[in-house]
Amino acid sequence: MKIALIAHDKKKQDIVNFTIAYTEILKHHTLLATGTTGKKISDATGLEIHRFQSGPLGGDQQIGARIADNEMDLVIFFRDPLTAQPHEPDISALMRLCDVYQIPLVTNLGGAEVMIRALDAGFFDWRKL
Ligand SMILES: O=C(CO)COP(=O)(O)O
């Protein structure tokens, strides 16, 4: 599966910890990320990650484009709900496209914990249809 990994600055340590914990599952998938998030994850885990631009510089939109092209199966996006983001329209657009194309989206650690187990259990096989 093609999985997007994104985290706002105050959530980056959370996504690093999450990917360390689930490296054994994630290494079997194609991983893509916004720039800074991807660098932190690959430095911490050694996972191979395709990195787009940083979020504020267009990375969210690049991931949105992949969704529109049916080239993304899951979006794990650790959002910071307590800090205003200069690129909020890009973030909204990315989440909107997940809804347009029925792409599973989780926006916090709790959702990600459930989704990664579902992924490992084969619950994403419908995406191959
Ligand atoms: O801002 C982001 C998502 O909206 C994340 O971008 P970075 O991973 O480049 O920090």
TrEMBL record:
Its EC number is 4.2.3.3. Keywords: Lyase. This is Methylglyoxal synthase. The active site is at 60 (proton donor/acceptor). Belongs to the methylglyoxal synthase family. InterPro entries: Methylgl_synth, Methylglyoxal_synth_AS, MGS-like_dom, MGS-like_dom_sf. Catalyzes the formation of methylglyoxal from dihydroxyacetone phosphate. It catalyses: dihydroxyacetone phosphate = methylglyoxal + phosphate. One of its GO terms (molecular function) is methylglyoxal synthase activity. Residues 1-129 form the MGS-like domain.
